[in-house]
What we know:
By secondary structure, this protein is of the alpha+beta class. The chain has helices at residues 2-26, 48-51, 54-67, 79-91, 100-115, 179-192, 195-201, 239-247, and strands at residues 33-34, 76-78, 121-132, 140-142, 153-155, 204-213, 225-235.
Amino acid sequence: MLLYFSMLISCSLFSQSEFIQEARYHLPRKDSLFDFESTGTYSGNYNYFRDSTIQLELMINGLLKKGNRNRADTLKQSLVLTQLSALCVKRIHTLMPQKTKRKKSLEKRIRRVFFGSNCSFGLIETISFEIPLAKKTANFYYNKKGPDGGFNLYKGKSKPRSTKEEPEPKEIALEVYTYTEIQQLIQTQFSRKKVNRHLSEKSIAAFGYFIQLDETTVYKNKIPKLKVLIILGEKRFSYKQRRKFLKDPTVQPV
């Protein structure tokens, strides 16, 4: 048993070390900032396979800009923070651990990668949440040969049996969320994770995020979900700015 746990810990440490090395290797040597589009036209039901995540990205952009309304023109998207969030979503098994210790461990892991990068910003906060794509009912089942052709999730405990009266019983697919409903779900997560509070109380100057379908929730008896990780950053002091700031507290960083 002791040997098993020691091997488990060593494998975990190795995977973390491997991830950190990979992230530092792939992150850009120099950070770049760019303006982001925050207006989009979206209506109707959201279909991941048809629509991808472009419209959802515009939603998040708009909410970030709205939350940072006092400094809306200064908020930029950081290439380093964007690529760091993409690596984390793709490589880290769970971005939403339940236990406090695991949450702190996750944040520490992301910060270790970040502090080894050449980002122009100081990492302030990491926010992770999930977006469900279908409305859950009390009972539902998965039928890979179902007529829906989307996530193939249907209401009920199991596929209805055929009878003489109804040789091909109708299967009722679970409702998918509309764009308007998904926007509300994202706004709720912004409120729970205090995103707007971070934007208003701290000098957030840049952000990066990534959205990806959680493959473990697709083609199974599970509600399909998107994983989202947002990283907020503020302007870093350069060495010269830090010395100047210490000499004169009224000096603001540029």
